[in-house]
TrEMBL record:
Keywords: Cell outer membrane, Ion transport, Membrane, Porin, Signal, Transmembrane, Transmembrane beta strand, Transport. GO terms for molecular function: calcium ion binding; porin activity. It is found in: Cell outer membrane. Residues 343-381 are annotated as: Disordered. It is a multi-pass membrane protein. Residues 366-381 have a biased composition (Basic and acidic residues). It comes from the Bacteria. Pfam families: OMP_b-brl (PF13505), OmpA (PF00691). It comes from Luteimonas salinisoli. GO terms for cellular component: cell outer membrane; pore complex. This is OmpA family protein. One of its GO terms (biological process) is monoatomic ion transport. Residues 259-381 form the OmpA-like domain. PROSITE patterns: OMPA_2.
Amino acid sequence: MKKKLLCAALLGGLGLAQAANAQEFDDRWYITGSAGFNFQDEDRRTNDAPFVTLGLGKFLNPVWSIDGELNYQNPNFDSGVVGGNSDLNWSQYGISFDFRRHFVSEGRAWNPYLLFGVGYQRSEEEFDAFPNPNSPGENEDGNFAAKVGAGLQTTFTNRVAVRAELAYRADFNDDSFAANGSTDWNGYPHNQEESWFGDMLASVGVVIPLGPEPTAPVAPAPAPVDNCADRDSDGDGVNDCDDRCPDTQAGTTVGPDGCPVPVTIDLRGVNFDFDKSTLRPDAVQILNEAIEILRRYPDLRVEIAGHTDSVGSDEYNQGLSERRARTVYDYITSNGIDAGRLVGPTGYGESRPIAPNTNPDGSDNPEGRARNRRTEMNVQN
């Protein structure tokens, strides 16, 4: 009957276990101490006795805690049975590891809990072995023990919590003097052989946390808002949010994205006759003006580039544009401009028109083609 009771209590208690909620909890280690009364199993043939405990524990999460606890009790034999003598020693001590499932509700002073524990109990017995000349007999034994129970516990107030508990402990001591069956002082059988004993434990105790009370974490100060739209780190006129080239050198011409754009000096008027790469007389005056600009700004570096219209094959126009660029390049260097300041000459063929070569209806556009037969100086710095 006692085994069925213990199994039912364990299974029922475990069935009530729930996942921990997400609230904050006090995870400090704490010490416990309690005093209570041990209602001994009648088959032990001992008197009920007080007991004390001392333990160490902590909460694992908001609703589960674990305690390691030492206990001690010293009940006397009931002198009304054979072998019983209240003057003889009968003491018991042990250790248990107890899990408590707390049912915590915010704002409630007392919160219930369920208890499940396992441990080790050791007993030291002296018993009257009359008429044996070696009386009193002695028996010492240690055994597995299990415990279930329920209780109430307050929250930590003024650094102390109070606990009231009622538990049932099964002591699997099959070597006890009382476990082997005996008769009372009238000679009647007192009990059958026992393999374990069940005791009821009623106690009141305290729980004292160790260390300072935890404080709520301080929320970090919000990071300052970095308003890149109000900054122009490189001074190119494009704010840092839109600037894809943030390290542009001062004075560089940039586009809407903050990146350098090529500056082209269109040698307007330095055009060429169809399929020709020789300079016309009117182009010489324009080139002389370009040479004066290069002399006035000795740090200026430029690319000499040649272009054609779309008449002819790509291969032919590429070669023609290179010859035109070479013609301008040679004229500029022959008039005292250091070739080290020039890039090229470079031919781009018909790939970079500045005017349509044909009209919208597909007919030829002689004026547009004439503008595309040109040379340019592209600034490099």
